[in-house]
Amino acid sequence: MPRRHDPGRRQRIIDAAIRVVGRDGIAGLSHRSVAAEADVPLGSTTYHFATLEELLVAALRQAGEGFSGVLAELVPDHGGPDRLAAQLARALGVWLGGERTGVELEYELYLAALRRPALRPVAAEWTERVAVLLTRRTDPVTARALLALMDGLCLQVLLTGGSYDEDFARTLLARLIP
Prior knowledge:
This protein has ten helices and no strands. It is mostly helical. It is elongated. The mean pLDDT is 88.
């Protein structure tokens, strides 16, 4: 039987992996669960991703585009330091106010790098991408400090189930901007 050409299959597998992790956590991820979610043969998942680590790397790489995309859209290359704090606080509000599953998924994959060394370079890429966006408006040290504060704010909201306070975030962010 000739092989069926399916150029979008790899992407469908990554999308399915993201849905599985979003629904069941990383512990629920398997080649079998992803194949069922993507509606592809089991062999397709192992053909494109020999290991679950490879699949997690691809999922983290794709999921990591979420917050950096929000920043790129809502934090322009220009504006004074007083505007930067407000723009970043607004971007966090948009990010946390959207589909919470996507935010949780991104952080779950990001934090999985603590125990899975294969994910660390991708987590570092995510951090670097956001830091580069921030250095368009401030110095590299301040950019890293802002990123650390924003990560902390996001994690607190996610872990406590609390609501995001944009005014409070703006006040904290403004204290870091020279």
